[in-house]
Every structure is written in C-alpha cells, then in structure tokens.
Amino acid sequence: MLTLNEFDKKAADWDLNPVYVERSRAIANLLIKAIPLDKNMTALEYGAGTGILSLILMEHMGKITLMDSSEGMISVIKEKLRKSRTGKLIPVCFDLQNGSYNAEYDLIFTQMVLHHVRDINDILHKFSLMLRTGGFLAIADLYPEDGSFHEEEFTGHKGFDPELLMHQLSSLSFRNINYQPCFTIRKEIGEGNVKEYPVFLITACI
Questions:
Q1: Contact 138, 203 (CB under 8 A)
Q2: For residue range 36-91, what is the model confidence (pLDDT) as tens digits?
Q3: Is the pLDDT of residue 161 over 60?
Q4: Which of 8, 24, 75, 183 could form a disulfide with 52 if both were Cys (CB 3.0 to 4.6 A apart)?
C-alpha cells in the first residue's frame, strides 16, 4: 500500500495525469444521476486527493469538506482554492482510519480510496455515524483484479465484489443500495501490454 509519504511525493504532479480527470468526470456524471443533489446539502469527500471530484461536483451542492490524510494532497487543494477563491470547499488533513471526526453530512463520497483502507467495515461504520438520517453514501472503486493494478509491494485490497460490499452496507443499516459500472482504467502493464480495470459506483442511503 502507498504510505503517507509516497502520497505526499505524488501530490504535486497528481493532476498531470489526464486519466484522473477523466475518471472523476465519469464518476461525477453517474453520481449526479444516482443521488438527488441540491445546493443545501453538505458533503464530505473522503480521501479527496487534490480535490478533482469535489471541484466538479461543487456547483450541485453546498459546502464540501475535502478530507485527506496526506499533507501534500491538502496543500495542493489549498493552492487551488487560493486561485479559485471559492468558499464552498473546506480542506481538512485528518486520518479517519485512526480517529473519529465529529461532524455530520448529507453525503459522503469517495473514489479509488477504499482499496487502500485496512479495515473496511470500520470505515463504513464511521461513515454511517457521520451521515444524517436520510443521508447518502457513494463509493467508486475497483472491481476484483489480479493484483497487477498496483506495484508488487501493495498490501491493500485487490478490488471489491460489489455484491459483498452491498451486504456489508446492509448490515450497517444502509438501504436502497445499488451499483453500476462507471469507468474503465486502461493501464500499461509491462512493455506494450495494456490491461483494463473496470470501476464501479455503489450508492446507498442511511
């Protein structure tokens, strides 16, 4: 799994990868269709990275808290916000895996983060506690893959079976749970070998 320092090192050049922007747009388009967003909603993007997804979604909601445990990623977000001068996005450097955050939201969303989280049930439980009654959860992540998506030293999850993730969410009192494919990442694996890694979006309410 990427360590905090490795994410910090990648932060400055993160937005140079066009796939990240393309993926975020695809996820945003599907999320907008799947969840009734409005400008009174408060939201949390967990593992916000450089804030690409929140910047796309912010016109559809009220304030969005952008949470990430990487100081490097949060620094990039703060620089973006200095240039855009929007007051709707609130960057927060916090490690939710190892702590509790005392706030409530109408929506929590995350993209390509869950497979880095050690204890999936624990983070989903924390999400359930941080959502207001009637609030929504949206998670975009990899379908099960053979381990080739990351480097050999990666110790996280090799994607998820959405059906099993639905069961976990149901056990935590989430309802109206649905998922669908939303994007396909094409990545060069070895010399001249391009492999496809599909991404799903699962949505639920509490």
A1: yes
A2: 999 999 999 999 998 999 999 999 999 999 999 999 889 888 988 887 767 899 99
A3: yes
A4: 24
Tokens 């497979």 belong to residue = 115
Q: Domain map of the chain by residue range?
A: 4-205
31-68 residues labelled b (16+ CB within 10 A) or e (exposed): beebbebeeebbbbbbbbbbbbbbbbbbebbeebbbbb
| Residue 6 parent element (H or E) | helix 4-11
By CB atoms closer than 10 A (0-12, 13-18, 19+), residue 157 is middle
Q: What is the DSSP string of 32-100?
A: HHHS---TT--EEEET-TTSHHHHHHGGGSS-EEEEES-HHHHHHHHHHHHHH--SSEEEEE--GGGS-
- Cα-Cα-Cα-Cα torsion 109, 9, 22, 78, nearest 10 degrees, comes to 60
- At residue 19, the 3 state secondary structure works out as helix
How many Cα atoms occupy the beta-carbon half-sphere of 188 within 13 Å? 3
> Model pTM?
0.91
Quick check: helix, strand or coil at residue 2?
coil
Beta bridge partners of 139: 110, 202
Amino acid 183 reads F
Q: How many CB atoms lie within 10 A of CB 85?
A: 6
Architecture of domain 4-205: 3-Layer(aba) Sandwich (3.40)
